[in-house]
Amino acid sequence: GQRLQLLVRVPLAAMGEVDFPRRGPGYLDLARADASLRNAATLWISDNIELYEGEVRLNSPQLVEVRVSLPSDKSFGSYEDALAHVTGPRLPNRLELYWNQGLLDALFEYPIQSEGSDFSIHPRLARLGLQVLTALRFLPPGGATRAFEFNGDPGLVRLDPRWHQAALRFVESGFFHILDGTDHLLFILCLVIPFRRFRTLALIVTSFTVAHSITLIASAFGFAPTALWFPPLIETLIAVSIVYMALENIIGSNVQRRWIIAFAFGLVHGFGFSFVLRETLQFAGSHLLTSLLSFNVGVELGQLTVLVVLIPMLEVLFRFVVAERIGIIILSALVAHTGWHWMVERGERLSQFPMPALDAALLESAMRWLMAVLMLGGLVWLVNEALQHRMQRRRQLPREQRQDQSPD
C-alpha cells in the first residue's frame, strides 16, 4: 500500500560507541535498554540508509519496533518470520546476555506514494566495522524476491533496475575495472609496444575483446568450472600470458600471429573478468545479458582510453629518448620481470589445491570444453585464411596495375 517496511538486524557489538545499560559482569540490562536501543537504531542504522522512490529520497522513517535478540535466533531467514519475531514477545528482562553478544532488530516504516514505484537504496553501513557484509532482500508486491550481498558501501543500489540503469552501471564497472586491473593493463601494453598504429592494432584488440566476451558470457551463464582451484588457475594463466607476450615482443612478432595469440589469451582473461562480475551481477536485476554486454562495452572503452594514452607516449619515447628496437626490448623485459614474479606467486597458491578427481563429471566437463575449443579453433582458422587471402589480393593489385600501365 502506502508503506515501505524495512527490517534490519545488526550485531550490538558493531555499535560499541552507544552506552548500553549493563548489570553484573557485563550483562545487558534489558529492562532499561529501550532508550539506548532506539538511539542506536536511529543513529547507526536509519540515519545511514538512504531510500529513494524513483529519484526522490524518502523522508526519515518511523521506528516502529526495536529489540534485542539472541545470537542463535534464526528468524531473519525469511521476511515473514522476521516481522513476526520483531513484533512478537521480547526477551525476559532477567535474561543474562552479555551486551556485545546480542543482536539489535529494528522495524522502520517509510511513507511512499505507490507500491509499484521503482525503489533504490544506498546503505552507508561501512562505518559499522572494519569489514561489513550486508545481506539484503527486497520483496516487491509481485512476489519475486531480489537478493543482494555486498561488502562495505556498494553505492546506490537499484532494487529493480530498468535496462538502461543496469547498462550504465555495468559500462562504468567495465571501464574502471580495466583502469584498476594492473595485470590487464600490462597485457594491453604488451599488445601495443611493437604495433603502435591504430589500424594495425584494430585486429589485435578486436580479437582480444571478442575472446574475453565469449568466456565472460559463458561463465555468467554457468558454463565455467566452479571448483576452488579454477580462479587461482586463471590468475596464474593471466600472468603466463603477460610473460609470453613480453618475451614474444623481445624475439619479434607479426600481426597475423599476434591476433591469434591475443584471441587465445583473451579467452583466459574473460574468465578473470567473470570473477569480478560474480558479486556485481546481482545488481543486474532481470537484465543479465544487457549487463554482460554493457560490461564488455565498458571494458572496450577502457582499452581504447589506454591505447589513446599509450600510443603517443611510446611514439615520443622511441623518437626522442631511446631507439625503437632497444626500447621495445627494455620495456618488454620489465613487463616480463613483473609477470614472472606474479606467475611464481600465483603458481605457488595454485599448488596448494589438490588435483581434481578424475570422475565422470570432470570428463564430461572436459569433453564439453574440448568441443568448444575445437569449434573456436576452426573459426579462428577460417578467419585467418580469409585475412591471408585478402592480404594476398592487396599485394597482387599494385602488381596487376603496374602491368596494365606498362607499354606493349
Question: What key phrases describe this protein's structure?
Answer:
408 residues, 56% helix, four-stranded antiparallel β-sheet, alpha+beta, 11 strands, three-stranded antiparallel β-sheet, elongated
Brief characterization of the structure:
The protein is of the alpha+beta class. Helices cover 56% and strands 14% of the residues.
Describe the structure.
By secondary structure, the chain is of the alpha+beta class. It is built from ten helices and eleven strands. It has helices spanning 34-45, 79-86, 163-180, 182-192, 198-220, 230-251, 255-280, 288-321, 324-351, 360-405, and strands at residues 3-11, 22-23, 27-28, 49-53, 56-57, 62-69, 103-111, 119-123, 133-138, 146-151, 157-158. The strands form four sheets. The chain has a four-stranded antiparallel beta sheet, with no helix packed on it. A three-stranded antiparallel beta sheet has the order 1-7-6, with helices on both faces. The longest helix has 46 residues, at 360-405. The chain starts with a strand and ends with a helix. The model has no long low-confidence stretch (mean pLDDT 86).
Shape: elongated
Radius of gyration: 29 Å
Count of β-strands = 11
What is the averaged pLDDT score?
A: 86
Biggest sheet, in brief? 4 strands, antiparallel
Range of helix content: 55-70%
Strand content: 5-15%
Number of helices: 10
Give the SSE string.
Answer: EEEHEEEHEEEEEHHHHHHHH
Unreliable stretches: none
Going across the major beta sheet, what is the strand order?
A: 5-4-8-11
Structural class determined from secondary elements: alpha+beta
